Amino acid sequence: MWSAYPARTRPSAGRWKPAAAALGGVLLLWWAVTAGGLIAPLYLPNPLDVVARMGTQLTTGVAWRYLAPTLGAALLGALIAVAVALPLGVVITHSRLFAAVVEPFVAISQTVPLVAIAPLLVLWIGYGTVPIAVLCAIIAFFPMVTTTVVGLRSLDMRVVENALLDGAGAWQRLVHIEGPMAAPAILAGVRGGVVLTMTGAVVGELVMGGAGLGTLLTLTREAADTAGLFAVVAWISLTALTLHGLVHALERAAVARLQGETT
Prior knowledge:
It is globular and about 70 Å long. The two termini are 33 Å apart. It is built from ten helices and no strands. It is mainly alpha-helical. It has a single domain (47-258), classed as MetI-like (MetI-like fold, Orthogonal Bundle). Helix 5 (114-124) packs across helix 6 (129-153) and helix 6 (129-153) packs antiparallel against helix 8.
C-alpha cells in the first residue's frame, strides 16, 4: 500500500487489477442507475447502449474514418513538440542567461486557452491538419520542456564532474552521461505530452473544423444523441490510453537501453 522509498517503487505485475475492479464498479453503478430509470437517457445513456453504438461505428468503419484524422494530427503535433521542446530544455538547462529569458515565456504559453489560440492559427496558417497539429504541439510542449529541465537539473553532479575530469566534451557528456541519467524524467514528459495531443486535436477540430472525432462530437451534440456523445468520448479516451501504453512501453525499453540494463 505504501513504500518508504518512492524512487525505488516498481509497479507490480497485477497493477491493472485494482483499476479494472474500480472501472467495473463504476460501470455497474452506471448501469444500475440508468436501468432503474433514475436518470433519463437524454442525460445519461445506458452503458450497454454506448457499447452497442461503438460496435456499430466499428463495424461500419465510421470509427476509423473519424479517428484517423484526429490521430494523425495528434501524432504530428507530438513530433513537432518533441523536436522543439527537448532541444529547448537542454539549452535552458545549460545557459543561465537563456533560461532567464525563455522560462517566463514557456510558463506564459500555458496561460492562454487553446480556444483562444485556435482562431489565430487559422488566421496565420489556414485550415487543415497543420494548424491542428500546431495546436497539439502547443499543449504537449510545456510538460516536455518542464520534465527535460527538471531531469537535467536533478543529475548527480559528481558523475558529471568526473566526466569533466576525464576530458569529456559537452556533446559527449550530453549523449553518454546527462541524457541517459535524465532519460526517465524526459521520457515521462514525452509520454504525458503525447497523451495531451489527443485533447489538442479534438479541441482544434471543434474550433477550426476538420474531419475527425471533434467533428463527430459536434454532429452528435447537435443531434442530441447522448449515446453517440458518450461513444465519441470513449473513442477519444481509448485512443489516448493506447498511446499512453505504447509510449510507456517504448519509454521503459529506451530507459533500460540508455542506462545499460539490457545488452
